[in-house]
Design a protein that fits this description.
The chain has 116 residues and is mainly alpha-helical. It has one domain. The chain contains 6 helices and 3 strands. Strand 2 and strand 3 form a beta hairpin. Helix 1 packs across helix 2. The chain is elongated and about 55 Å long.
Length: 116
Amino acid sequence: MKTTLSTSDIAHALKSDENAAWTWNGARALAEYLEEYEEETGEEMELDVVAIRCDFSEYSSLDDWAREYFSASIWEEELDIESDDDDDAVADKIREYIQDHGTVIEFDGGIIVSSF
């Protein structure tokens, strides 16, 4: 027996997980990502909010992710950020690093990054 969930159903289930801190925009973006992944692979997924919470984290920005992932003193060095890099160049370097190691889901109001 199976129940097919809508994007809103998935987002609501993610948001209802009391041990996660998804924003509504984040939960919706993650739900859309999971649906796209399911369509691309042709593989049906079971909604496991605990596993999803362990596999993905939400951040308010790429910069916030970098500061949390790396120690505060070395994140710019690790990402090869130069003093003359503008905000877009810094964001591109952070995005590229994440994409080289995992998944980044960008949405209005933040990002979601897969664990790696």
